[in-house]
Specification:
alpha+beta; Aminopeptidase; 2 domains; seven-stranded mixed β-sheet; 14 strands; elongated
Length: 332
């Protein structure tokens, strides 16, 4: 059983509505997902123009897929609004025939890794549940989270009071847990993480040496320049524990960043992984306040970057003996 997270696309909405709200949906999940709020079942029209529409390409909402079947979602939201220092998350497995098989554990591990990787300033991530939802409490414990707060008898359901529970995990606790398991990723799915951790730098350098130095014949003294410092930000995409794609982010000034050293291992090219690592760095730069991204790309790769919003500027020039062109993109 392979569990992975994917971005929600327009084409996914009908299936997502069918399994969560539609006439044939298994509504067992409604008994545990804050039933005291008495949220109504959404019609297709309401779902498609509201929550569903807002979920398309939303980095804080992902679909849970098991062996190519969509079974649930993970979400995240800012408890403190524009301050963006307090992130809570959620998870729902709509088809309860998948409960008890580790799907939630695998999905939540991936989600925690992705969120900590995307928002490097965050020190903690948590979720809120209620004392009647024992399964969610056990799930939090399985992924290493701690019960941080209990507000007693504030949830009323079926003529009974329940407690509100707050679970959380610190960044250092998640990193320690990952290192103890000898891998940030415990599944054979693809996951991307952004940061300046030593293991990310090592993974990025491993890929760049194999691809640029050994495969393309670039001198290693040119490939590994003085920009590869201790504070340099890297994006690395892993399949399981194996790094397969990478990119590097350099800060030019407070408004502009440069993405470069984009590389994907030969066996995984043509699958969009290069785009994934580039966009992960775009997201990181946008969160940090940058407005413009520039690329110094090989001329043969320019068309690839143009497919997701980059525009050429200036003439072709030589860089490290290779024909290159500058491309730029405005972040929104």
């Amino acid at each position: 059983m392979k569990v992975r997270l994917k971005s929600i696309q327009q084409a996914d909405l009908a299936e997502l509505w069918a399994i969560s709200q539609g006439p044939t949906a298994d509504l067992e999940w409604k008994k545990w997902d804050g039933p005291y709020f008495k949220d109504p079942i959404l019609s297709w029209e309401t779902f498609a123009t509201g929550w569903g529409k807002d979920s398309v390409d939303n980095p804080l909402r992902k679909a849970i897929v098991v062996d190519d079947k969509l079974v649930g979602i993970v979400t995240a939201y800012w408890e403190d609004g524009q301050l963006r220092r307090w992130l809570d998350m959620g998870i729902v497995i709509y088809d309860h025939s998948y409960w008890g098989y580790g799907v939630g554990t695998h999905a939540l591990e991936q989600w925690l890794t992705e969120l900590f990787g995307r928002f490097l300033h965050l020190q903690t991530i948590g979720f809120t549940t209620w004392s009647g939802n024992v399964g969610m409490q056990k799930l939090g414990e399985k992924v290493g989270m701690s019960l941080e707060a209990r507000v007693r008898k504030v949830r009323f359901w079926q003529n009974q009071f329940f407690d509100s529970l707050k679970y959380g995990i610190l960044r250092e606790e998640w990193v320690a847990r990952s290192e103890e398991k000898q891998s940030v990723y415990r599944n054979t799915v693809h996951s991307v993480v952004v940061g300046n951790a030593p293991y990310l730098k090592a993974a990025s350098h491993y890929l760049r040496y194999a691809i640029f130095v050994l495969e393309k014949g670039i001198n290693q003294s040119i490939e590994f320049d003085d920009q590869d410092g201790p504070d340099t930000i890297y994006s690395v995409l892993f399949q399981g524990e194996k790094p397969i794609a990478t990119a590097r982010l350099l800060v030019i000034n407070s408004q502009t960043v440069r993405i470069g050293r984009v590389a994907t291992t030969k066996a995984f090219r043509g699958r969009g992984f290069g785009r994934t690592v580039v966009q992960s760095l775009e997201n990181y730069a946008s969160e940090a306040g940058a407005q413009t991204v520039e690329l110094h790309a090989e001329l043969t790769a320019a068309a690839f970057y143009e497919t997701f919003g980059y525009q050429r500027e200036g003439q072709v020039y030589q860089e490290d003996g290779i024909d290159c062109v500058t491309l730029k993109k405005t972040l929104h």
